Amino acid sequence: MSDEGRRLPSDEGRRLPSDEGRRLPSGNPYPLGLRLAGRWVLVVGGGAVATRRVPALLDAGARVLLVAPELTPALRAHVDAGRLDWAQRRFEDTDLDGVWLVQVAIDDPVAAEAVSAAAARRRVFCVRADDRDAATAWTPAVTRHGPVTVAVLGGGDPRRSMAVRDAIRGFLEEVGKAPLLSDPALAEALPSTRSGRVALVGAGPGDPELITVKGWRLLTEADVVVADRLVPGLLLDELRSDVELVDASKIPYGPARAQEEINRILVDRARAGSFVVRLKGGDPYVFGRGGEELLACAAAGVPVTVVPGVTSSIAVPAVAGIPVTHRGVAHEFTVVSGHLAPDDPASLVDWAALARLRGTLVVLMGLKNLAAITATLRAHGRAPGTPAAVVQEGTTGAQRLLRSTLGEVADAVRDAGLRPPAVVVLGEVVTVLGADSIT
Ligand code: SAH
Predict the structure, then answer these.
(1) Could you tell me if 133 and 155 lie in one domain?
(2) Biggest alpha carbon distance in the chain?
(3) Where is this region: Disordered (predicted)?
(4) How many A from CA of 285 to the centre of ligand 1?
């Protein structure tokens, strides 16, 4: 028998540099979950492939050494933020010192081969974007559901792995939505999708298209939606018919009791296993009591996430042709609530200090007290000729805009019969784009 014939298959991997660069028989991949937190990973290349690969490595907590003469702007942003180390040059053998994994993300096959051969010499696994047959590791298509990660290897065909991954993702989302219909063992294995939770979602200022992509996705996944008065009706029109819709504005009792009642509904429904979306006008944390709801859920042990929204304080002026800042005009904007009169002992707003600011002042919930607010600002020195605008029901088909001055705006609003919800804007930015810009 020849020497070759007597060698055990397990010797294959122990052969030293002579097997460098050799095409290994493909076999079945052996799946592993690499725990990369705090471990060095080398990424060679600074182009589109590296840009796609780096975020998942950072997400896994890996320490990333990026070796490339040039970077895409997205990679440069990671470097600038100190999230990874960048060696601005071509690959050198010593780049492999101490690394656990290599990602080769360069097109040049000769250079890529040099990196993977060096990695093979050191027995470091190497993913190659340019040539999966030459790679010693493959990256799977991935979907994550809370603590569960599903990784799919498609036997060499990335389209196949992505298609299977998408099918599994769809299936797991269904399990999350209908926990009672699915196999209890499966539901048990996916605690984060099965058990109830709450999302505080900003619905935007009025135009139903101004919700965020994430907010919209969660809304389509909700079992229960608890909506505010200011939430665009069209968003609610599109909910599935089996979704329970709670209109928070119709809850009786005074505001304090009503808030307690909303908190109770959020916690109860989530504890019963539902995914509850608390949909709030604008951004949940801008005069929206979102913080109280988050604390109530947290105190009850209910997982809660926040999805910020487009706030009316910026978006409503914008759509009415008023930028809240403008170069050379305003370097600041201040958003205040006018729901309490300036002389109300419960007011937390320092109107005298606001009167001294030169920048833009945006007042929400300010119509009722507008006369007192403008008088106070004038009394503390803000010029009566300061441009002012009031936008009612901004970003909707019913939007009304009134332009005036600090001295006259309160009377003008009364004469025009403007009603809440309205945003009041004070400052030079009101006239900076001119009336023609408004559509
Ligand atoms: N969280 C909301 C604000 C809630 S306070 C946000 O981020 O937008 C409610 C106040 O917001 C209203 O009284 C009004 O001042 C303002 N507002 C909300 N939507 C508005 C709209 N479409 N047009 C004008 N003002 C609006």
Answers:
(1) no
(2) 107
(3) 1-27
(4) 12
Q: What is the pLDDT of residue 171?
A: 83
Which ranges of the chain have pLDDT less than 50? 1-13, 15-21, 179-181, 191-194, 437, 439
Predicted pLDDT of residue 388: 98
Ligand 1 contact via 206 beta carbon (within 6 Å):
yes
Amino acid 391: pLDDT: 98
350 a catalytic residue: no
**pLDDT reported for residue 8:** 44
3-state helix, strand, coil in the chain (%, to 5): 40, 20, 40
Q: Is 432 in contact with 438 (CB distance < 8 Å)?
A: no
Overall domain count for the chain: 4
Does the CB atom of residue 232 touch ligand 1 within 6 A?
no
Q: What is the spatial distance between Cα 273 and Cα 179, in angstroms, rounded to a whole number?
A: 8
pTM for the complete prediction?
A: 0.69
Mutate to test the pocket of ligand 1, among 207, 210, 228, 364 (most ligand atoms within 8 A of CB): 364
Q: What is the CA 57 to chain-centroid distance, rounded?
A: 19
281 CA → ligand 1 middle, Å = 7
